[in-house]
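Q: Hi! First time doing this. I have a protein sequence and I read that you can turn it into a structure. Is that right? Here it is:
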Amino acid sequence: WILFESTFLLLMLCVWGETTCGKARQSPFPWLKLPGVKQLAIGLDHHVVACCHDGSVYSWGSGSTGELGHNKQGSEESPKRIEALLLEHVTMVAAGHGHSLAVTKDGTLYSWGSAGSKLGHGTGPGNVLVPTRVTALD
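A: Yes, that's right. Below is the predicted 3D structure, encoded as structure tokens:
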């Protein structure tokens, strides 16, 4: 995964190449303007999680295993706020292969995405589609 931190009030992300929706771009173009971004985490499976200075979290890209945290399996072309974290002040995010993580101001860890023990929730029956507190660390 790739981690990007910013002290700027506005992040501008430029992209090129083929998107998950099949659109091709030959040269970089401004694609995203998201205010107050302090950190970006980019997963190996083409998804992005952004943490903002105000504690909000956005995600977009490929979401085939629920790694976007929007209570569904499916992609988002544009940043969408993760509603399950609305009441939390997130300070850090991470993105892996098929999963995402967030740490709150009080040190609580949330994980979501591809099923399996890598999320810290035991061996559940399926993918975790919304950020879920990792209670094993309580």
